[in-house]
Design goal:
The structure holds two protein chains of two kinds. Chain A is built from no helices and eleven strands. Chain A is mainly beta. In chain A, a hairpin with a 5-residue loop joins β4 and β5. The radius of gyration of chain A is 13 Å and the shape is globular. The termini of chain B are far apart. In chain B, the strands form two sheets. In chain B, strands 2, 4, 5, 6, 9, 10 and 11 form a seven-stranded mixed sheet that branches. A four-stranded antiparallel sheet of chain B has the order 1-3-8-7, with no helix packed on it. Classes of the chains: A mainly beta, B mainly beta. At the A-B interface, β5 and β10 of A face loops of B.
Chain lengths: 108, 115
Amino acid sequence: RKEVEQDPGPFNVPEGATVAFNCTYSNSASQSFFWYRQDCRKEPKLLMSVYSSGNEDGRFTAQLNRASQYISLLIRDSKLSDSATYLCVVKGYQKVTFGTGTKLQVIP
Amino acid sequence: DAGITQSPRHKVTETGTPVTLRCHQTENHRYMYWYRQDPGHGLRLIHYSYGVKDTDKGEVSDGYSVSRSKTEDFLLTLESATSSQTSVYFCAIKEDFFRENTEAFFGQGTRLTVV
């Protein structure tokens, strides 16, 4: 089983739609969680950290479920500019593991 | 944007030749990392550095070496390039690995093709 797993997609959604991605992790001792965004042929950039109580940043909501060992990212009112690959990142004691990413394509 | 640059941005090289990639930062961050990104794999850590002349191996270090003689520069060397090392290489910097929720900043990437 991979340490961090994501559905590769692509998720094709119309503008204005709500879309959610999940990411599962295998190490129950994982400490910190993040969502990064990567545009095509560009470097990854931090989208948001994921806090235990869940957190929101504008149209983006991140949640952590430690019992089931997954994190989620919800995007409301999708924009064309949201089209990208979203990487799940899990940090353990001395190791950071990246998921392979979920590709989102927002369609006009 | 964080001050981190990679050079070269693109390179084509022949099998068996040595190749050096450079990562330069102006943020004075202690931690520097080299990752490779391949289809079907997440970013995989090659080597990292936690200070000048302090480096350690990551999960895919075979065939690679690194050096950090100055805080701002972290070099990745492919000792004898092979086709399996064709990839996109990203450098990253981080102020403090252990502090919760500190952000890693990535360079623009180097596309390396080994023919």
